[in-house]
Amino acid sequence: MRVLAAMSGGVDSAVAAALAVEAGHEVVGVHMALSRNRNQFRTGSRGCCSIEDAGDARRAADILGIPYYVWDLSEKFEDTVIADFVSEYEAGRTPNPCVRCNEHIKFEALLDKARALGFDAVATGHYAQIVERTDDDGVTIRELHRSPNEPKDQSYVLAVMGPERLRHAIFPLGGFASKADVRAEAERRGLSVSNKPDSYDICFVADGDTKGFLADRLGSRPGNIVDQDGVVVGSHEGSYAYTVGQRKGLALGNPAADGKPRYVLGTNPATNTVIVGPAELLTVNRIVGDKAVWFADDVLSAAGQDASGSGWFDVQVQVRAHGLQVSGRARSVALDRAAEVIEGGSGRTAQPEVVGACTRAQGADLQLDDRALLEVELTGGTLRGVAAGQSLVIYAGTRVLGQATVVHSDRWSSAVASSAVPASALPSGVALSR
Question: What is the pTM of this model?
Fold first, then answer.
């Protein structure tokens, strides 16, 4: 096969390219220039796609003896990943830029250009496995699975790519059980990046100051921090800088009556208000996501998929990269049932003002993506601090079944069950489950 190897300048992508060469593919290396600042440099383990990274990628390609190019995708990156990041926070949601980068850059812009140039696949240094099986009709099906290297597993951020893109992807590191093994492989091959630090945090926020980055883009917008009774307990310089579950950086002037810590329950962009309350109100037992992507036609078919959706089937649920996995049940729901599922769900009454991919007034029409919804009910425990905008991924064992973007959650707590906390305390986009 003709394979385009995405080379970030790190050890993972360098080893992935080397393994693609070793497998007998015709490999060409490409470094994606994603920053408009050509003088950007790394700060230790922060940042990526810098001028130094491009140099490291070139040296690795030279050692492997493969052609190497730099493709400028900075405009696309700015218009999709960064713009989405800023607009989502401004709308009171919590985006995952790594998910958006995989969706719009690596497996859209890069893959589409590669295919147009006659390449069969794109190889990346992601930690995930592709498992092939043959269905009853003799058709080969590619499944996305977790990596055996659980701490580094990236199936969660890859799930957004969908089955069609997966058909043109190669993950040579899928079988590696540890990062140490990858570094040893790089050293054995004489790759100078074998001891290069991993990059962390958000690549385009190299100093790690997300709040400062957003403030530079959105400016100062002073407002109030209120508790669950609507009492003003502090102030802020922009509700966009806060996310569900946050505790640090609140600087609340008035302590809670019970002396316990308070957390961000949500934000209301319409009133520029941050709502805080007790930890119990962060506990979630039902989640709805839109823009659903499915890898599991066989599972949906077995669950009775029809025009209205599917029946329930057992899954493991994850809402954060490397986050807790909780057992539950899931189903596909047709878009024309969105209001029923989001606002009602199993008899619940929601009062959302901010729902899904839109901000709306009470009672306004939902404006969701034209794909089906994914509804999940947690049966083996609960999750805490689930925010609209997060990626919701469901698994069967190691296999990825589907992905969606969180638009709604039901929160349960003993405080709620005993009516100690009123429904009016909850931020928009959240319902009570009693």
Answer: 0.88
Q: What is the DSSP string of 8-75?
A: -SSHHHHHHHHHHHHTT-EEEEEEEE--S-TT---BTTB--S-HHHHHHHHHHHHHHT--EEEEE-HH
Report which of residues 289 and 340 the model is more confident about. Answer: 289
Strand partners, 432: 411
Residue 88 exposed, middle or buried by CB count within 10 Å (0-12, 13-18, 19+): buried
- At 50 the pLDDT is 78
> What pLDDT was estimated at residue 363?
30
How does pLDDT run across 55-85, given as a tens digit for each residue?
999 999 999 999 999 999 999 999 999 999 9
Cα 269 vs. chain centroid, distance in angstroms?
Answer: 22
- Interatomic CA distance for residues 246 and 276, integer angstroms: 9
Q: Are 2 and 26 in contact (CB under 8 A)?
A: yes
Q: Which amino acid is at 87?
A: S
Which residue, 352, 337, 298, 373, is CA-closest to 134?
298
CA separation for the pair 312, 117 (Å, rounded) = 42
CA 392/CA 99 separation, integer angstroms? 11
What is the spatial distance between Cα 100 and Cα 89, in angstroms, rounded to a whole number?
A: 14
- CATH architecture designation of domain 280-432: Beta Barrel (2.40)
- Residues labelled catalytic: 101, 203
Distances (CA, A) of 385 to 25, 57, 285, 395: 45, 38, 11, 20
CATH of domain 2-195: 3.40.50.620
Q: Any idea where the domains of the chain sit in the sequence? A: 2-195, 220-277, 280-432
Which residue is listed with tokens 């499915």?
A: 294
Just give the CATH number of 220-277: 2.30.30.280
Token reading at 209? 């100051």
Please name which of 268, 272, 391, 267 lies closest in space to residue 323, comparing C-alpha atoms: 391
Distance of alpha carbon 246 from alpha carbon 385, whole angstroms: 8
Cβ atoms 38, 51 nearer than 8 A: yes
Residue 256 has which token pair? 């809670």
